[in-house]
Amino acid sequence: MEQSQKKKSKRGGWLIWLVAVLLVLVPGFMLGKILLQYKGARDEYRQLAQTYTTVTQQGESQLREIDWEGLKEQNPQVIGWIQMDSIELLDYPIVQGEDNGWYLTHSYTGAYRPAGAIFMECQNDPAFVDLHTIVYGHNVKDGSMFGGLTQYMEKSFWEENGGDFLLYTPAGVWKYKIFSVEQTQSEDPACYTIGFAPGEEYEAFLQAMKDRSVYDTGVEVDGDDYVITLSTCVSGDSQSSERMAVHAKCMQQLQ
Fold first, then answer.
1. pTM given for the model
2. pLDDT tens digits, the chain, 255 residues: what are they?
3. Coil, strand, or helix at residue 251?
4. 98 Cβ partners below 8 Å, 6+ apart?
5. What angle do CA 92, 86, 217 make, to 5 degrees?
6. How far apart are CA 142 and CA 160, in angstroms?
């Protein structure tokens, strides 16, 4: 009787040990798998830039020459390219899907990637001619996609790096400057409304964005400005409703 209890106790001990090991190994395996997928996505986009873009000196600026025809052969839903010097990894093509769901989990090639892609709001005009355009990207833990944008919640980062980025499209190259950084909720109409016409209503919409900013960038907005909102999750959890939005005004056409 006593020997049988010892055997049961021994088996129970092994079972507890096995469960403990699995609790450590399984999450570690899943994390490793996700990190490998993130690395695969970074390598994929790095190769894309090397294949379809060339850096050229134009006056005092270094600009990209982009092979739009080649990119669109890869994916006809490629509509632009965003590059932010202050964030090394923020250098991606912009795509637009038929809805806002597909590119949450797929790269520009259409391959499954947890990091998704940088994509435009499906109801915006793909030619970037709307006064207010929204572009989404995941807050990826390795800093890729829009993961680096969260640094702009700190005024010190903006002070050290500025708030400029470049938008490339088949029609030209534009320089944008950040005028507001805010934390908001997904689908907040005060942040995620499009379809404006020039005028007082639109100017009030932009001014409210500027007033909600966590710090003042000194960039003023008017009722006929072209603005892009870069939107990402605050915590990196796509299920959370908290969002960070970086609003930037088109300053000039460079090409």
1. 0.84
2. 555 555 545 555 555 655 565 455 544 434 344 545 566 666 788 888 899 999 887 777 789 899 999 999 999 999 999 999 999 889 999 999 999 999 999 998 888 888 999 999 999 999 999 999 999 999 998 899 999 999 999 999 999 999 999 999 999 999 999 999 999 999 899 999 999 999 999 999 999 999 999 999 999 999 999 999 999 998 756 567 899 999 999 999 998
3. strand
4. 122
5. 115
6. 22
Structure confidence at residue 141 (pLDDT):
87
> Can you give the length of the chain in residues?
255
Q: Which residue has the tokens 């839903």?
A: 77
Q: Which of 250, 247, 209 is nearest to 226 (CA)?
A: 250
Tell me the H-state helices in the chain.
2-52, 68-74, 155-161, 200-212
Q: How far apart are CA 156 and CA 11, in angstroms?
A: 58
Distances (CA, A) of 253 to 2, 105, 164: 86, 32, 13
* Ranges assigned E (strand) in 42-194: 53-58, 61-66, 78-83, 91-95, 118-120, 132-136, 164-169, 172-185
* DSSP character at residue 198: S
> What are the residues facing 231 on neighbouring strands?
136, 245
Which residue from 174, 217, 46, 36 is spatially nearest to 114, judged by alpha carbons?
36
Question: Within 10 Å of residue 30's Cβ, how many Cβ atoms?
Answer: 10
> To which residue do tokens 């795509």 refer?
95
